[in-house]
From TrEMBL:
Domain of life: Eukaryota
Classification via SUPFAM superfamilies: Family A G protein-coupled receptor-like (SSF81321)
Record function comment: Odorant receptor.
Domain annotation G-protein coupled receptors family 1 profile: ranges: 44-295
Higher taxonomy: Eukaryota, Metazoa, Chordata, Craniata, Vertebrata
A Gene Ontology cellular-component term: plasma membrane
Location within or outside the cell: Cell membrane; Membrane
Gene3D superfamilies the UniProt entry points to: Rhodopsin 7-helix transmembrane proteins
Protein name: Olfactory receptor
GO molecular function: G protein-coupled receptor activity; olfactory receptor activity
Membrane topology: Multi-pass membrane protein
Classification via InterPro entries: GPCR_Rhodpsn, GPCR_Rhodpsn_7TM, Olfact_rcpt, OR51/52/56-like
Protein family per UniProt: Belongs to the G-protein coupled receptor 1 family.
Positions of transmembrane segments: 28-51, 63-89, 95-123, 143-166, 199-224, 245-264, 270-295
Amino acid sequence: MMSADNHTVFYPVTYILTGIPGTEESHFWIAIPFCLMYIVTVFGNSLLLFIILTGRSLHEPMYLFVSMLATVDLLLSTTTVPKMLAVFWFRAGEISFAACLTQMFFIHASFIAESAILLAMAFDRYVAICDPLRYTIILTKSVIGKMGLAVVTRSFCIILPLIVLMKQLKFCRTNLLPHTYCEHMVIARLACNNNTVNVWYGLAVAILVIGLDAVLIALSYGLILRTVFRLTSKDARLKALRTCSSHLCVILMFHISSVFSYYAHRFGHIIPGYILILLANLCVLIPPMLNPIVYGVTRKEILKRVIYVFHRWCRGSSLLS
């Protein structure tokens, strides 16, 4: 330890996640719906992956992108929720500095990856509707594999500097984190030296990366709508719009939660802290839980495959009994 600016500067070995401040007596009960949402998330996304990977008819570009999205949703929820439940139920909030940075890396990398996958899915719908004759030529499995690799590489390259910048900070206030998971801005606020670079880099990622993805998605759907409304057949227009409905629902869920997360840190002094943290938890719980439900309900091919799998499972169970 060393003294600087009348503060004790230290490099924390561990942090302690305190959960949602002001709601300690309700932590046990808050965790119950969180646990149920996590179970639905794991089951739904695992089933979706199984359905897509085992169904040859679903080995199409759109469904391969859906499987990437399900993988990212599993990563995000599994990175955050088990520790969240441990904090709520067992007061097991202790987490090492290295583990905290690792969790922070995967949380933010998951958001960046999900944004890129939604952009890839928008491009997929653009090609399918605006240039259908070249769809299978443009979106080959090789191209989709390269797009998946680009998603992973981009996420790694964008978030790694954030971790490096975080390791440069000196901490002098406390090792108590008033949150349920290691969030970038929450940790940065504990620093006693200048954290301006960290703050601005985080803002740049939110605005330039996710914001740019949102603009490109909007542009894709603008071109899609222009093509759709030029179709002479009403049935063709409805069919084209239906193919985009599930994707639009997922885009709205993701970007609404992203916008909330961004503005929550800007106006955190206005809204009570416990509400911000509760809503931040819902932002990492609700989209991963609802995504497989949206695709399962709106995509007939997936729904048929789910029904077929459950029918076979029920038949197998009845034969064994």
